[in-house]
Design brief:
Blueprint lengths: L5 E9 L2 E10 L9 H11 L6 H20 L15 H10 L6 H20 L10 E5 L16 E5 L15 H8 L5 H13 L3 H5 L20 E6 L12 E6 H12 L1 H6 L20 H15 L5 H18 L7 H9 L4 H4 L1 H8 L2 H6 L3 H4 L7 E2 L1
Parallel strand pairs: 5-7
Antiparallel strand pairs: 1-2, 3-4, 5-6
Length: 387
Amino acid sequence: MPNQKVFFRVSLALAGRSFEGFPLLIAGDGWPVEPAQSFLWHALVESGEALSRLTWEAYGRRLYDYFAFLEANGLKWDEESAANGLSVLSRYRDWSSGELSLDPRTVNNRLALIVRFYRWAKQRNLIAVLPFGERRVRTSAHSGLLSHVTRPNAQSTKPSVMVRAQKRLTKFLTKDQVKECLGLDADPSHRILFHLMVRTGLRSCEARSFPLKYVFNPKLQKGLRKGQMISVALEPTDMHIKYDRPRTIDVPWSLMEDMWSYSLHQREMRKRFGDGNVSALILTNEGRHYSKDAVVDVMKSYEKKCGIYVRAHMLRHTYGTYTLLALRKSKDFEGEPLLYVRDRMGHSDVQTTMIYLHLINQLEAQSVLAYEDEIDMMFMSAPITQI
């Protein structure tokens, strides 16, 4: 096995199709690490799955991590386990859980891809035996909206190598916590980032790449009234959207007004320190685009000031929970609230959105009835206008 491996992301173009950000695993001799590289091409391109560029990078890094572990320990990916011995995959699992102390969900996310790799390799006769066993598990039945698609006592198989993990509750901010964060004397860019995620459900990568071209003065837009929700169409050619799927979000009037003011003043001052070519609305003090790590630091700054745990994904969950709650309470909204939230948040499957039904049930009745912020009232205002 080569002495050193390197992880790259490159821009490929084949038959007129762009594969920007495709991951390459390069060995010390300059050649791709096989068969891992062929599997990545199958999983990310040939399979036809609608995967985002973030997923491409995650897949590449997971395989890179596994093959680097094998090399560091003098192991081969296709070696068969000795009698009563641990497989190479089991050793990687134990190292990830033990020495690295990774979260069980992180370990299982990595193992799930490697399991797919080994199944792919066996289908192509690259190995004779899988380095893990299978056990049968009973699938949980759905209730309500999806109950008709669930077969009673249905079973599936699960790789025995996976780590047993306790189900963790999805975290979101309470009404009072949102108010406290919004009331802080925070950096103007931090405020816009926070508002975009908690009031529109944008992901971190989407909020930090939200384009300047989408922002306008709502007072001058014909047909708009103050307090109205403004429907904004997001396009992957303009910003970073997971799965590269266009979708529509609803921006509160007051937020659009704040973003317009920010673009005229704060953004113009920050732009002078950069190269002036950044298309995103929100800029750092140096006039640059916000990175993923920079957004993490922004959330930690809120945590430090408020004394509560704050992360970007919690803001998105907060939007999903309270928007679904507001729609279910509203007498004026026509349509299925769950599907509306799914579309606004860009979920690929309504089952992902259903988690907010469980979160609503967890809320205490008093806090539910007391929630009277704009998030709760947003669908009782004037009709939404498309731009």
